[in-house]
Amino acid sequence: MFVAAAVALAVACPGCSRHLPEEGTPVAGLYLARCGTGCHRPYQPGTMTSAMWEVQLARMAPVIAKAGLPPLTAREKADLLAYLQRNAEGHAR
């Protein structure tokens, strides 16, 4: 349900973001739902390197807590990091 709401939001605001890699997959939906709602649009994974995404994901934990949102589970962190690194700048596609 959470993923469906995020996808609906993305469709309702076509100028807010470009298509994400792996669109329509559960992990892309997770990225939209957990990282692309609220304060900012989801960043294209290719805008940062693999190492930068690792730092960025860790940096967001206190921001998520301050916003009163539930923390990422260990599984969500692992899935999101794998998705972002798989589609990061400089990663062979």
Structure summarized in a few sentences:
The protein is mostly helical. The chain is 55% helix and 0% strand.
Explain this structure.
This protein is mostly helical and 93 residues long. The chain has one domain (2-86). The chain is 55% helix and 0% strand. The chain has four helices and no strands. The protein has helices at 2-12, 26-35, 50-66, 74-86. The longest helix has 17 residues, at 50-66. The protein is globular. It starts with a helix and ends in a 7-residue tail after the last helix. Mean pLDDT is 83; it is low at 1-16.
The gyration radius over C-alpha positions equals 13 Å
Sequence stretches where pLDDT stays below 50 over 5 or more residues: 1-16
Number of helices: 4
Number of domains: 1
Taking all residues together, what is the mean pLDDT? 83
* Class derived from helix and strand content: mainly alpha
Helix content, binned percent? 40-55%
Largest sheet composition: none
| DSSP E strands, number | 0
Backbone shape: globular
Cα-to-Cα separation, first versus last residue: 30 Å
The secondary-structure element order is HHHH
Strand content: under 5%
Explain the layout of strands and helices.
Blueprint lengths: L1 H11 L13 H10 L14 H17 L7 H13 L7
Helix pairs in contact: 1-2, 2-4, 3-4
List keywords for this structure.
93 residues, mainly alpha, 0% strand
